[in-house]
């Protein structure tokens, strides 16, 4: 009787160890997801992972311009008088983040909170003063003077 009990117990242990090993193998094949950035206008929200991210370390200088020039995958409609709400994960806010409009830095100092609101009209005037119908906004995580991550959104003017 003892032999049968031991072999059943041994099989259960073997199956459990096999399941744990298989689970670890599957997890090791997955990349850790990047932090999210979210844009909300009224009841509509879009979130995205970073288009460029190096696990919280600074991006290489040679990658930065290419990262800033990538096109947004996520689009949200915005009226000129809407409040556009930006949100980032706490780890991004800890380092600080700034907004870029059409690849150009729009702010001098990094923002250190997870959430902020800006009126929609701020995003739809060109450098010549004319209004535009859409604008690419990039949320850029910084660490000191280094860029750490870039998230892109397209804001489309509705009025």
Gross geometry: globular
- β-strand amount: 35-45%
Helix share of residues? Answer: 25-40%
Q: Give the integer mean of the pLDDT values.
A: 85
How many beta-strand runs? 10
Distance between the termini: 81 Å
Number of helices, counting only DSSP H or I runs of 4 residues or more: 3
H and E order: HEEEHEEHEEEEE
Q: Give a short account of the largest sheet.
A: 6 strands, mixed
The radius of gyration computed from the alpha-carbon positions, rounded to a whole number of angstroms, is 23 Å
Task: Please state the structural category.
Answer: alpha+beta
Low-confidence stretches: 24-29
In short:
This protein is an alpha+beta fold. The protein is about 25% helix and about 35% strand. The protein contains three helices and ten strands; from the N terminus they run H-E-E-E-H-E-E-H-E-E-E-E-E.
How are the SSEs placed, and which strands pair?
Elements: H1 2-29, E1 36-41, E2 44-49, E3 52-53, H2 61-69, E4 75-78, E5 83-88, H3 90-95, E6 97-101, E7 104-105, E8 115-119, E9 134-143, E10 146-157
Description:
Helix content is 27%, strand content 36%. The protein has 159 residues and is an alpha+beta fold. A hairpin with a 2-residue loop joins strand 6 and strand 7.
Fill in the keyword field for this structure:
single chain, 159 residues, alpha+beta, 6-stranded mixed β-sheet, 4-stranded antiparallel β-sheet, 3 helices, globular
């Amino acid at each position: 009787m003892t032999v049968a009990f031991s072999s059943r117990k041994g099989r259960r242990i073997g199956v459990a160890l096999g399941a744990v090993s298989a689970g670890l193998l599957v997890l090791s094949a997955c990349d850790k997801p990047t932090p999210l950035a979210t844009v909300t206008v009224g009841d509509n929200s879009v979130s995205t992972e970073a288009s460029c991210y190096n696990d919280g370390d600074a991006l290489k200088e040679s990658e930065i311009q290419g990262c800033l020039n990538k096109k947004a995958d996520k689009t949200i409609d915005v009226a000129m008088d809407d409040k556009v709400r930006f949100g980032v994960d706490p780890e991004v806010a800890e380092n600080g983040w700034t907004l870029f409009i059409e690849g150009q830095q729009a702010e001098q100092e990094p923002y250190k909170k997870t959430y902020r609101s800006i009126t929609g009209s701020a995003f739809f005037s060109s450098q010549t003063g004319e209004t535009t119908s859409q604008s690419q906004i990039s949320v850029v995580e910084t660490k000191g003077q280094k860029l750490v991550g870039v998230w892109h959104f397209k804001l489309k003017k509705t009025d």
